[in-house]
Amino acid sequence: MPDHLRTPGGADVPYGQPAQHEAAVIRTEAREAGFSVWRTPLQHQRGIITPSGLHFAVHHNGIPDIDPARHQLFLNGLVEQPLRLSWDRLQRYPMVSRVHFLECAGNSAANALSPFAMDLPLGQLAGEVSSSEWTGIPLSLLINEAQPKPNAKWVIAEGADAGSHARSLPLQELHKHGILALFQNGERLRPSQGYPMRLFVPGWEGNANVKWLHRLEFSDVPAHTKDESGLYTQVLADGRIQRFALTMEVKSLITRPSGQQNMPTPHGFFEIEGFAWSGRGRIVRVDVSVDGGRTWAAAHLDSPVLDRSFTRFSLPWQWQGKKSVLMSRATDEHGHTQPTRGVWKSRYAAHSFNHYNAIQSWSVSRDGRVENTYA
Ligand SMILES: Nc1nc2c(c(=O)[nH]1)N[C@H]1C(S)=C(S)[C@@H](COP(=O)(O)O)O[C@H]1N2
Ligand SMILES: [Mo]
């Protein structure tokens, strides 16, 4: 009999923490272009909700220390009724809860840019995507109350961090889908996710989901802020620039087995698992290949299959120790499906990396090591 069956256990703590044996399940930080990017260890995530402490994060100017009692949200510019909203006042509005993914436009940039497949764990390769239950106020309520003037077509959403992160967003779409998110997975937003409030628009690239939101300025024209030029536009193959392409495309990742993992011994049954999502709607199909794309089988989709959310897929596999290349290809309800890396590369300029949604391939060597590969 182990000791813990004989003697009473230890004390609990006021705010629960993961088991001490799970200390390796952590986000990894990288400094990209001078700001910090924290990636979700997707290879360890086994359900559709990312634990809040493991949510990926991109901070261009650090995390501001905001006192929620003093924070205010302004709606101004081309409106009949400018609004100034405190936390207390916001609590009086009806709220909705929605489970949605959030993905950085630059997720999987290494695979988009590197001429050879970098040997990295999944989280470090493509962990700028996470999924949460977001609770907050439908933006339509606040927009209606502010009464935009007829010539208001854009909303410039501004954060209260040091760089005043700001994005110009089309008013009509914001009115239809936007949420002022105040809660994440049942508790107040984490500081890393924009405490005390953020803009959340399901399916839109991470950058548009302005954290520490403090102002929505209504305008007839976009502001062309620093955050929507340069880093967050896509350069097409012919050199033209795709601006305000906000929706994240259909994508999937096999999480088990994935980069730098080893297949269990002895050979035999293994359940391939992963996540699929689309910024346009529900996932209807995920095809999985174990032979580098020569043949495909339809994976099982685990419920719930939600709109613009992680959907879990799985496929049973008998691995007999042969060299294999695993791939997953998701299709959404609008018939959008994932391109091969070659097709994706042909659409964009060589240095373009945003909105990368090509099929991810993992090679499995005879000795069972799993590695990122371009197939
Ligand atoms: N105010 C503010 N909002 C911001 C950012 C920021 O640096 N400041 N980063 C953006 C980027 S690039 C992304 S990908 C998402 C990431 O959201 P998360 O950190 O909650 O995952 O927030 C966006 N909103
Ligand atoms: Mo981002």
What does this protein look like?
- The chain has 375 residues and is mainly β.
- It has six helices and 24 strands.
- It has helices at residues 87-90, 109-113, 122-126, 139-146, 171-177, 341-347, and strands at 28-32, 35-39, 57-59, 72-77, 83-86, 96-103, 129-138, 154-159, 166-170, 179-184, 187-188, 198-200, 213-219, 234-235, 241-242, 251-256, 268-277, 283-289, 297-298, 300-301, 311-319, 324-332, 361-364, 370-373.
- Strands 5-4-13-8-9 form a five-stranded mixed β-sheet.
- Helix 4 (139-146) packs across helix 5 (171-177).
- The chain is globular.
- The termini are far apart.
- The model has no long low-confidence stretch (mean pLDDT 97).
- The ligand Nc1nc2c(c(=O)[nH]1)N[C@H]1C(S)=C(S)[C@@H](COP(=O)(O)O)O[C@H]1N2 is lined by residues 55-60, 102, 104, 159, 161, 165, 192-193, 206-207, 209-212.
Please describe the structure with a list of short key phrases separated by commas or semicolons.
single chain; 375 residues; mainly beta; Sulfite Oxidase, Chain A, domain 2; Immunoglobulin-like; 2 domains; five-stranded mixed beta sheet; 10% helix; 34% strand; globular; binds the ligand Nc1nc2c(c(=O)[nH]1)N[C@H]1C(S)=C(S)[C@@H](COP(=O)(O)O)O[C@H]1N2; binds molybdenum atom
